[in-house]
Specification:
The chain is an alpha+beta fold. Among the domains are: 187-494, Alpha-Beta Plaits (2-Layer Sandwich), CATH 3.30.70.270; 496-593, no CATH class. It is built from 19 helices and 17 strands. The protein has helices at 19-30, 40-44, 50-54, 166-177, 192-201, 215-218, 222-235, 263-280, 297-310, 330-337, 344-355, 378-397, 421-437, 456-463, 497-513, 519-537, 543-562, 572-582, 593-600; strands at 3-6, 9-12, 76-81, 85-90, 92-93, 99-100, 243-249, 255-260, 315-320, 358-360, 363-365, 405-410, 413-418, 448-451, 471-473, 476-482, 489-495. A 4-stranded mixed sheet has the order 8-7-10-11, with no helix packed on it. It has a 4-stranded antiparallel sheet with strand order 12-13-9-14, sandwiched between helices. A hairpin with a 5-residue loop joins strand 5 (92-93) and strand 6 (99-100). Helix 5 (192-201) crosses helix 8 (263-280), helix 10 (330-337) packs across helix 12 and helix 15 (497-513) runs parallel beside helix 17 (543-562). The longest helix has 20 residues, at 378-397. The radius of gyration is 33 Å and the shape is globular.
């Protein structure tokens, strides 16, 4: 017997080669062994059997006969292999008059109790319009697929599909059903295909680590490199390299330390984070928004705005953990991961990435606490750490409060709203003690308890204290305001002034360097930069800051163009069309917070 495989289907030259597969497939689908005689009840009743359903015949439908060639057999052939599943297809005549399949048949499950339906993979015997001369022409036209199995979840076609594999889906379902389950075997989900997907998910322009490898260099002989990396990870010989220390400026003038991991460390960290996310995404609470799939900064801003307006909030606690990524305790971190992960190989990888240390100016330094801010695995580990330290504790604490309490957290920056001041003060005191147990502390300059809400302006006016204070969260300053017409309570969101100044300083510095570049090149660059700024900051009520940004950039660009030559100085009349062409006018790009929030979270 000779078999030739094409796209998962076996083409058999010997008609008896499918006997064993036919018996196994019939038993799997019907629950009875193939060849068992049908009962008299099934023969006489109108209920369709598996054989009649596969032939396209039902109790209430007319029998379909091909208009040409010999009559097809009613015996099902189950052909295929163990990787692609068994295929059940009726024997239909081929174009040259021989018995066989006229085309490829997809995998299907016949509905034995459907009335008047036939499976979409059954091909009617319709001859081609071009006659029997050209056998390469399209032979038949298939019918539309059946509606019987539309409610079933389609399995991923290959491991390279964007959706999680079947194993990860089952793991996610198990984590959802049992919140105390511990997963003992996870490393087998890190396959070569998973590593390949993780490599392609990396940013191509990302800075290299201590190994100096870029994505373009690593892509040469990518298959061999990933196979070697896969073998080292599963064989226990994988060694993580220290992160390369770099600093980026912050809006307050300080510098933020970042750790850039080596390229292979990025690939493995991304693959492991995808596996662990399937577990912890079922555990994370709803008010956690930072570094989670399907959630972003604007989702957190919408939730905060809706909570402040819909709940009885009179006091706001704006809190920030001081040096959070640099003060994470390694032992507590591992213990928190072990709550759900019992695979020692995954735990060993997490320990390696925590203790690998950093390399700064060629000098290596170990890490006793903290996780590199900038590593791919760090956001997930940070969410796991704060889930057990803050989220679960705060969710349990607010049940004992005497009034309403709202919580919105994005990474290590979080905001809470309280109805009563004594609840807010008690929570702040308990929070400091709670964080101290795990080696954390609140930032004294960024943690404030302020009076904020729909009655804050009236209460402060009665006490002669002026307007309510504002607080900053995720790049926006939140202020108490009222609508123009109905004078209802409203949350005014404006770009933080310090961040606006820092952004303008960067743009002006670049314009100074590109003073002598062509106007088209500079204008195209400015258009991309300004539109990117609008995509985040163009919310309702922030038009003043956006117009200020556009005006400042236009005036400074004109100033640079005037310095290019002294014979003909450009005036505003000549420059105005250039501004209209290259610097877009600001417009709102985000819906109102309540509209987007209730669209994603319907009541």
């Amino acid at each position: 017997m000779k078999e030739s495989h094409g796209e998962g289907l076996a083409t058999h030259t010997d008609p008896e080669s499918c006997v064993g597969g036919r018996e196994a497939g019939g038993e799997a689908l019907t629950g009875a062994r193939t060849g068992q005689p049908l009962s008299d009840e099934m023969k006489s009743s109108g209920t369709p059997t598996l054989l009649t359903e596969a032939e396209g015949n039902t109790g209430g439908g007319a029998r379909r006969e091909p208009s040409w060639g010999p009559a097809p057999s009613k015996t099902l052939r189950t052909c295929g292999n163990s990787l692609n599943g068994n295929r059940e297809v009726p024997e239909v005549p081929s174009l040259d008059g021989r018995d066989g399949r006229s085309g490829k048949a997809g995998s299907h499950t016949p509905d034995a109790y459907a009335s008047g339906k036939s499976d979409g993979c059954i091909v009617p015997g319709k001859p081609p319009n071009k006659g029997r001369v050209n056998l390469s022409a399209e032979a038949v036209e298939g019918r539309r697929p059946t509606k019987g199995n539309t409610l079933q979840t389609a399995a991923p076609r290959t491991l390279g599909r964007k959706n999680a594999s079947n194993g990860l889906q089952r793991m996610r379902e198990a984590a959802r059903k049992d919140k105390n389950a511990r997963f003992t075997a996870l490393l087998h989900h890190i396959t070569q295909e998973t590593l390949r997907e993780s490599f392609h998910a990396l940013r191509r322009q990302a800075a290299p680590g201590v190994d100096g490898l870029t994505c373009e260099q690593y892509q040469v002989d990518l298959g061999d490199r990933l196979k070697d990396l896969h073998d080292r990870v599963h064989g226990g010989s994988y060694r993580a390299l220290p992160s390369r220390r770099v600093y980026i400026p912050k809006s307050d003038g300080r510098r933020r330390p970042l750790g850039i991991a080596a390229l292979e460390d990025k690939i493995v960290q991304h693959a492991v984070s995808q596996v662990l996310s399937c577990i912890y995404e079922e555990d994370f609470l709803g008010f956690s928004y930072g570094f989670r799939p399907g959630r972003g900064a604007h989702d957190a801003l919408d939730a905060l705005s809706v909570g402040l307006k819909s709940k009885k909030v009179n006091w706001v606690l704006d809190a920030d953990i001081q040096g959070f990524f640099d003060t994470i305790d390694h032992e507590w971190m591992v213990r928190f991961v072990e709550h759900r992960v019992a695979d020692p190989r995954i735990i060993r990888l997490v320990r390696k990435w925590l203790r690998v240390g950093v390399s700064e100016d060629g000098t290596w330094s170990g890490a006793e606490v903290g996780t590199p801010q900038g590593a791919i695995i760090s956001p997930l580990l940070a969410n796991v750490y704060l889930h057990y330290v803050l989220d679960q504790w705060a969710h349990h604490w607010r049940r004992s409060a005497s009034g309403d309490v709202i919580i919105v957290r994005y990474a290590d920056d979080f905001v809470l709203g309280f109805q009563h001041r004594h609840d807010a003060e008690r929570f702040l005191s308990d929070l400091k003690a709670r964080l101290e147990q795990f080696g954390l502390a609140l930032h004294p300059g960024k943690t404030r308890l302020i009076e904020f809400g729909r009655f804050a302006a009236d209460n402060r006016r009665k006490r002669g204290e002026g307007r309510p204070e504002a607080f900053d969260f995720l790049g926006f300053t939140h202020c108490c305001a009222k609508t123009r017409i109905r004078k209802r309570f409203h949350i005014q969101r404006r770009t933080v002034k310090e961040r606006l100044r820092a952004f303008l300083a960067k743009v002006k510095a670049t314009l100074r360097k590109r003073m002598h570049d062509p106007i088209i090149e500079v204008g195209s660059w400015l258009q991309r930069v300004v539109l990117g700024y609008y995509r985040y900051h163009a919310v309702s009520g922030n038009s003043y800051a956006l117009n200020t940004l556009r005006q400042e950039i236009a005036w400074y660009w004109l100033k640079m163009l005037r310095r290019r030559g002294q014979k003909q100085r450009m005036n505003w009349k000549t420059f105005s069309p250039i501004v209209k062409r290259w610097i877009p006018v600001p417009k709102v790009m985000h819906p109102y917070p309540n509209e987007r929030f209730y669209a994603k979270h319907p009541r």
